[in-house]
Amino acid sequence: MIFYFTATGNCLYAARQLDKNTMSIPQVMSSNMTRFSDDSIGVVYPVFGHRPPEMVREFLERVELDTPYLYIIPTYGARHANAVEIVSDICKKAGKRPAYIHTLLMVDNYLPAFDMDAQRMLDKRVDAQIGEIKADIAARRKYIEPVTDDDRAAHANFLKYEAVLPGRSLSGLVYASDRCIGCGICARVCPGGCIRIVEGKAHFDYANCQGCLACAHACTQKAIELKIPEVNPSARYRNEHVTLQDIIYANNRTR
């Protein structure tokens, strides 16, 4: 069994490769399910500012995972910094003891910092990395990826950047421009249920915004824009192995 949080399909793809029994974290968090049991349980999620999305943090704190082998795979696109240490601390406070934590380098979909066209061109050896991780899991390897002082310094520098963002947060950076046609795709891919279509236009309630940018990447009109500059406003991303319907299904909180 593996739990995942996905915005553009990277973590969904990784989860599918690691275990046939995949569980959507947004669906779990909108249900009354609080306990799961299996021979091994995994959690795969994208790091946002080197941290889990807030929903993933809440999942780790709330849900009981009864397993002799808990493994966690934080995915990242440029630098993971001390992501392993951060999630380790969250687990420790929640009474969980991961046997294995290993980062996974994938496409970075953070629009203010990366050009999606350029990211697609990079060979990040995703399948090779997943193969190595899968072999470790099959062997029940115990391993916590080391964290260095440089990793911690990278996170400290990021926090300075985050402090000057609108709202001092990665969440709430998006809005619907005049190009919005009210199709509702953004609302259907939003894992936090933050978007409603009102009078033919997307309206945002940022209270549960995860800062994942799923809405911006999925919009067919590129009508979901950011409040800060983008590297390439014309480029968007979805994992080539994942469909839009896959993401809609994953983030449907009413199932």
Automatic annotation (TrEMBL):
It comes from Candidatus Scatomorpha intestinavium. Residues 171-200, 201-229 form the 4Fe-4S ferredoxin-type domain. PROSITE patterns: 4FE4S_FER_1, 4FE4S_FER_2. This is Ferredoxin. Ferredoxins are iron-sulfur proteins that transfer electrons in a wide variety of metabolic reactions. SUPFAM superfamilies: 4Fe-4S ferredoxins (SSF54862), Flavoproteins (SSF52218). It comes from the Bacteria. Keywords: 4Fe-4S, Iron, Iron-sulfur, Metal-binding. PANTHER family: PHOTOSYSTEM I IRON-SULFUR CENTER (PTHR24960:SF79), PHOTOSYSTEM I IRON-SULFUR CENTER-RELATED (PTHR24960). Pfam families: Fer4_7. InterPro entries: 4Fe4S_Fe-S-bd, 4Fe4S_Fe_S_CS, EFR1-like, Flavoprotein-like_sf, PSI_iron-sulfur_center. Its cofactor is [4Fe-4S] cluster. One of its GO terms (molecular function) is metal ion binding.
